[in-house]
UniProtKB/TrEMBL annotation:
Matching PROSITE patterns: PROKAR_LIPOPROTEIN
GO CC, alphabetical: endoplasmic reticulum
Transmembrane segments: none
Superkingdom as given in the UniProt entry: Eukaryota
Coiled coil start-end: none
InterPro entries, sorted: ARM-like, Hsp70_NEF-Inhibitors
UniProt name for this protein: Uncharacterized protein
UniProt GO molecular function: adenyl-nucleotide exchange factor activity
């Protein structure tokens, strides 16, 4: 049983994922790292046999003897003499009270030794460990805090131009107190608000694997919207598999999280949810036969696959680094054997199947208890189409694979079925939205290969032709009379037209048709602006 637990991650808010939290963290970081930074001219020290104090940016030639006092940060340099060679055997580093010496040889190698700073021998360990603060810089930095934050920490003392020794000591003591308080606040903030993100991803991957080990149990724990009472569970609770996928999709909007998710092995686990067979069997069971699912169970599977596709699309969307993920090989069960496929193929198959189911569904003649079926299948249609578009746009490698597997023809069949329904009954907002998104996808892919040619002209031409065959060209024209789709149809025709015209068409006639089409599109766009 997967028990509900509170997510380690911040509560999901898409409008501002990290806003105020990261602004506070950034302000803390400025305070912590912004002090005591000054710029001095860099120069190379001409060392002698006497210790010479180094400036902050001064450089040292090879073969010099360097000493640093860790209590003050001061560094000295001199040439190496015979006495120094005898002491180089002592390489222990003493971090408090004494100085650390390093010898830079002519090859640039550094050896470290312990040196006693006679000037500091009379200091006790507590004084030696005291940081050397720049209190004026502290004051300037802390004075930039918002007034309410300054009030919270008890106010920032004024820095007078002339202070008595007693006043100066009081000023420094107060600044030190504020500074240490702010450091403690930052540490507490990190503990309270910065989740262990890699562990969070591992937990989500483990939750998916747990579901795959016993999907029947996972389906029993899952409730559909019609079965859930209002306010039955809090928004930030992560329990059933759908809640896990929702939370995962949110985190995968972050590029670093998406990269870590892939590195941790989450991609094939997530992709496998798109295979129907994984939801019908239990890993490790004595029987190899798949168990039949009820209609209610299949509605839940549709919901799971919709959210899995959503997370997949979010991961690869607009990120070139993740483009290869689309055609990564994934092993899934099929007919009592394991077959190799790709994430793109799995998502495409689910889109085609769910689109066909929606178009064949007669909502008016169906009993009310089947409303979950229509809702979950329609959600899967939109999420899988979103994932297909995310994996194909700007991804020449995935486009090539897609065309080789007859992907454009499968999408054209869906578009033709939508056009047939529109001709028969006028369609509805759901089916028209499918058509609009398919037309936009074809338009974007053809425009991509036209404007951004790859190293292979033959590959670009094949992709363009796959989305510009007779079925695509003729079906696109069928949506022109529909007010909601006529602009999208015109823009798509504009991209497909160069390939749609007959190959033996006279070049002058081809040019006239293209000019007429361009003028029509321009006129439509201007009319809409008015």
């Amino acid at each position: 049983m997967m028990k509900k637990k509170r997510s380690n991650s911040p509560k999901r808010r898409r409008t501002s994922k990290n806003g105020p939290t990261w602004m506070i963290f950034g302000l803390f970081a400025v305070i912590i790292f912004g002090c005591c930074l000054t710029t001095t001219p860099a120069k190379e020290i001409e060392a002698t046999n006497e210790w010479t104090l180094l400036g902050e940016n001064d450089t040292v030639a090879a073969g010099m003897h360097v000493r640093m006092d860790l209590t003050t940060g001061e560094k000295w340099v001199k040439t190496i003499d015979d006495d120094d060679n005898e002491s180089e055997t002592n390489t222990n580093v003493h971090v408090v009270g004494d100085a650390v010496a390093a010898v830079v040889d002519v090859q640039g190698q550094v050896s470290v030794m312990e040196q006693t700073n006679n000037d500091n021998n009379d200091r006790n360990d507590e004084e030696a460990a005291e940081p050397n603060y720049d209190y004026e810089m502290m004051h300037r930095t802390l004075s930039k805090l918002p007034p309410e934050e300054q009030d919270r920490i008890g106010g920032i003392p004024k820095l007078e131009t002339k202070l008595t020794p007693e006043q100066r000591a009081a000023f420094e003591a107060r600044m030190k107190q504020i500074w240490e308080q702010r450091q403690a606040d930052l540490k507490q903030f990190q503990e309270d608000h910065l989740a262990d993100l890699p562990q969070l991803l591992k937990d989500r991957i483990a939750s998916i694997k747990t579901y795959l080990e016993n999907p029947l149990q996972g389906l029993q724990e899952l409730q559909l919207a019609s079965e859930t009472q209002p306010n039955e569970e809090e928004e930030d609770m992560v329990g059933d598999i759908v809640a896990v996928l929702q939370d995962l999709e949110y985190h995968l909007t972050d590029v670093d999280m998406a990269r870590d998710f892939y590195t941790l092995g989450g991609w094939p686990v997530l992709s496998s949810l798109l295979a129907d067979a994984v939801h019908e069997s239990t890993i490790g069971s004595n029987s190899t036969q798949q168990q039949s699912l009820s209609d209610d169970d299949w509605n839940k599977v549709n919901l799971i696959q919709a959210h899995a596709a959503w997370a997949i699309g979010t991961t690869v969307k607009n990120t070139g680094e993740f483009s290869p993920y689309a055609i990564d090989q994934v092993e899934v069960p099929q007919a009592n054997q394991v077959v190799k496929t790709t994430t793109l193929d799995l998502v495409l198959a689910q889109f085609v199947a769910s689109s066909t189911a929606v178009l064949e569904y007669d909502e008016q003649s169906t009993e009310n208890n089947d409303s979950d079926y229509f809702d979950t299948v329609m959600m899967k249609v939109h999420k899988t189409l979103y994932a297909v578009g995310a994996m194909l746009r700007g991804n020449r490698q995935a486009q090539t694979h897609f065309c080789a597997d007859q992907g454009p023809a499968l999408l054209a069949n869906v578009l033709t079925s939508v056009a047939d329904q529109v001709d028969a009954s006028g369609g509805n907002k759901n089916t028209l939205k499918i058509a609009q998104r398919l037309l936009s996808l074809a338009q974007d892919i053809v425009m991509d290969v036209t404007l951004h040619s790859s190293t292979s002209e033959q590959v670009d031409q094949a992709i363009g032709n796959a989305f510009s065959d007779a079925q695509w060209c003729q079906t696109t024209l069928r949506f022109l009379p529909i007010p909601r789709l006529y602009e999208t149809s015109l823009l798509t025709i504009q991209q497909l037209a160069p390939q749609c015209t007959a190959e033996d068409l006279d070049e002058e006639i081809r040019k006239e048709r293209m000019d007429l089409l361009q003028a029509t599109v321009t006129a439509v766009q201007q009319a809409q602006k008015q």
